[in-house]
Amino acid sequence: MAGAGIQPIVGCTLSVDCGDQEHQVRPSGLGGVMQTLPRLVLLAATEAGYRNLLRLNSRAFLDHPGTEPAHIKLSWLEGHADGLIALTGGPDGLFDRAIVSGQPSLLPARADALLRLFGDRLYVELQRHGTADERMVEPALIDLAYAKGIPLVATNEPFFATAEDYEAHDALLCIAEGRLLAETERRHLTAEHRFKTRAEMTALFRDLPEALASTVEIAERASFRPVARKPILPRSRCRGRGRWTRPPSCASAPRTACGAASMPRDRPQLHRGAVSRAARL
Question: How far is CA 236 from the centre of its chain?
């Protein structure tokens, strides 16, 4: 990618429980429920930030009941924010969602918490896809950014390549969420949720040149790239190369009525065999 003049940026979007409000539960579209949480965009600026990103992403999936969607708690960022650049998440972010839900009083505390964690590595996202929510929250976001000294950044969230792809993508959304095109109370995008060129973004945010300048600044700061390395395998208790000890769990595993080993007995053997073969590669 670098040889083609493309600057790769390593990061992810994580749902965040700020602990300051009860979160709504809405249908998932497949008969279940899904808890809605605001999101935060984290980008790795250094190797330390990349390692923190890995830890947080793992905790998002492992450190809560399996019935809950993957997410982190805001307190988990304590001690794990170094080397990370944070963007406030756009329309589904920590600031926008508080405004849309009629709780703007949450903004100062959330902004102070993020500033304490990230300092000058925090940016307030502005997006302009022509939605009513974006138009409603933008003045409050700009006022908050100026009051707290947080830089603005202009971002775009493309879901398809061109405006001509909008109708097809809208149909795919309905299929994925089990909804009908005729329904009004469902997730809607606009034709502006398409990939935009640099010239189009410059024209769209011509009234906020500092938000455009931040996009270049972030690209320069998020210059970390992970290096290729061999697979990291767990340490094993071996009697020589490739020979594994027999753990107590195997000896005590139940057997079926016909005498064949049940799944709990076979699975550890399969895992040990796979790791042993990989270690010899």
Answer: 33
